[in-house]
Design goal:
Elements: E1 2-7, E2 16-21, E3 30-40, H1 42-49, E4 58-59, E5 63-71, E6 83-87, E7 99-103, E8 108-109, H2 116-134, E9 144-147, H3 153-164, E10 168-173, H4 176-184, E11 189-192, H5 198-205, E12 211-216, H6 223-229, E13 230-238, H7 252-256, E14 261-263, H8 274-289, E15 297-301, H9 306-314, E16 321-325
Parallel strand pairs: 9-10, 9-12, 10-11, 12-13, 13-14, 15-16
Antiparallel strand pairs: 1-2, 1-4, 3-5, 3-7, 3-16, 5-6, 6-8
Helix pairs in contact: 2-3, 2-8, 5-6
Keywords: NADP, Oxidoreductase
Protein name: Quinone oxidoreductase
Organism: Denitromonas halophila
Amino acid sequence: MEQTIRFHETGGPEVLRREEVLVGEPGPGQVRLRHEAVGLNFADTYFRNGTYPIPLPAGMGVEGAGIVEAVGPGVTNVTEGDRVTYTGFLNTLGAYSTARLIPAEPLIKLPDGISCETAAAMTMRGLTSAYLMRRIHPFQKGDTVLLHAAAGGVGLIVSQWAKLLGLTVIGTVSSEAKAEVARAHGCDHVINYSHEDVAKRARELTDGLGVNVVFDSVGKNTFMASLDSLKRRGLMVCVGTASGTIPPFDPQLLAMKGSLYLTRPALADYIADPAEKAELAGEIFGHVAAGRIKIEINQRYALEDAVQAHRDLESRKTTGSSVFVI
């Protein structure tokens, strides 16, 4: 019997249950995958609390890495024994497990220089960072980015990648400890939003002009400050809603604040095309394998500690990436 984490009702971390399951043989288009590590992402909490509605009961987690144990009929992209990683949405839900059946389509073969633990810590965050840096905006050397949650998993990757592109990075954090982490990973300036006015400081740091792009993963609590930090015709990228969803607003607001642009992208739409997914994965894995971008795994949990892991995540106790070690 294998171990898995499931939930039968939406709610707080306490709804997560550890259960025993029998994993059978893979069907057409499937593989049986034995996990070595599983990613812990803030998006997991959206499934658990009902922000992302799904039929219940359901598995938890959408990212993991391990070894292919068996392949079903029609599978051609991977073979038994391959080291693979994956991330996705409904088609990969159920990652919090020791082993599982999963469609073969989302699986990505791991290059030799990337361990399963590193892959579980970076596949979702890395692909998210890749589309943010390579698809969202035509960045030019010297552009300035305001990056919320700069000490988080995506934040640390984006800040390092931004420095490779010659960008100036202003990161926001909630504590001095997180500020030190952000600075160590490429942030040129750090704003501690627990006692500093984000928009005011962003304006001061850009000589009153504002930033070219804001990457906002916080949502409700930072939305207006993010808009007020942008230069004329700047781009607001809403990449998450950690503090809650953004309330409805009149689009006229964007015109009033400088003909701003706004987008709410989703990773699924940037990896839907296999060729584009392979290109983005190749870029981030290449940077990591070469040491140009470092993946910080600062929290490791056992699968049975899923409730505590979610509590830590939602209380913002974590920095960098978190994984379940199987």
